[in-house]
Write a structure and sequence with these properties.
single chain; alpha/beta; six-stranded parallel β-sheet; three-stranded parallel β-sheet; 11 strands; binds NADP nicotinamide-adenine-dinucleotide phosphate
Length: 292
């Protein structure tokens, strides 16, 4: 094995520890604890799991959690009214509307209703727009992309002039990661389902970020020797040898790529834990912003 593993679990624990310490200091100095409101609409099981772990992480960091669960039949107006109430509540510093919303609800309108000072998920069109513009800064950067950049930064202090390839162009991962890489002065190629000759493109990458949702798609011969490879994918594949009958794999063929890459994130234990750590960090940032 040539690749050094990038330990997202340890890095996330360190960030969450720092957040917990600052929260304690704020409370000791007489400030109210940071507050995060989570809004879950409908009964998607994966969304329930994600929101549960976000609420648990809040409790561990001393962040107050305000939990709202609305039925899948909720109207656009009901969801937006809840967001408006949370915008006006001084105990709530961050508002997280768990995506995807049930069919029939206009996601962009709901995200636009969130006050940008409380947009800890970073998906408000204004925060994303600022991310895309030179000389502007978003108030918050989306959590998974921010975790990806943190992990890259932990092994590659400068991206200046590096060739970066992002597989995937979703609103929540691929596109914001690409924008962040450009901001870090990398030369960025974005690939998607209509791209031709993916292996030919990815072999040029000094930094390769895979966010496609296709189990083990990136093979060993897709990777430039010594490259930094960040695997965002979380995919369930059948495995009769496991008690649960399945195992989790990334978008990168770990066994092949670990022989070629310089650095590689494992799945699980890579990008996954960073998402929640960055959410805690963004919520703390939102509470700092509310001081002024
Ligand atoms: P998504 O919305 O489904 O987007 C997938 C992207 O990959 C799209 O841009 C799509 O292209 C592209 N794509 C699909 N098949 C492809 C192929 N064969 N060749 C090249 N490109 C292809 O997924 P996502 O929400 O970005 O998530 C991606 C993965 O990351 C999933 O496994 C998800 O579970 C995981 N994830 C992990 C975290 C975390 O915390 N670690 C957070 C979010 C997501 P088109 O645009 O052309 O359709």
């Amino acid at each position: 094995m040539t690749a050094q593993l990038i330990d997202g679990t340890a890095t996330a624990e360190q960030i969450r520890g720092e957040v917990t310490t600052e929260v304690k200091e704020r409370v000791a100095s007489g400030k109210i604890p940071p507050g995060l409101a989570t809004v879950l609409v409908g009964d998607d099981p994966a969304s329930h799991t994600y929101v549960r772990s976000k609420r648990k992480a809040c409790a561990e960091a001393g962040i107050e959690s305000f939990a709202f669960e609305l039925p899948a039949t909720s109207s656009q107006q009901e969801v937006e009214e809840l967001v408006e109430r949370l915008n006006a509540d001084p105990r709530v510093n961050g508002i997280l509307v768990q995506l995807p919303l049930p069919k029939g609800l206009d996601e962009e309108r709901v995200l636009r209703a969130i006050s940008i000072e409380k947009d800890v998920d970073g998906f408000h069109p204004m925060n994303i727009g600022r991310l895309a513009q030179k000389g502007r800064d978003p108030l918050f950067v989306p959590c998974t992309p921010s975790g990806v950049m943190y992990l890259i930064g932990s092994v590659l202090p400068s991206l200046e002039g590096a060739n970066a390839v992002v597989l995937g162009r979703s609103n929540i991962v691929g596109m914001p990661v690409a924008l962040l890489l450009v901001r870090a002065n990398a030369t960025v190629t974005i690939c998607h389902s209509r791209s031709h000759d993916l292996p030919g493109i990815t072999r040029q990458a000094d930094v390769l970020v895979a966010a496609v949702g296709k189990p083990e798609m990136v093979r060993g011969d897709w990777v430039k020797p010594g490259a930094v490879v960040i695997d965002v994918g979380i995919n369930r594949v059948e495995d009769a040898s496991r008690p649960r009958g399945y195992r989790m794999v990334g978008d990168v063929s770990f066994d092949e790529v670990k022989e070629i890459a310089g650095y590689l994130t494992p799945v699980p234990g890579g990008v996954g834990p960073m998402t929640i750590a960055m959410l805690m960090s963004n919520t703390l940032r939102a509470s700092r912003l509310s001081d002024h």
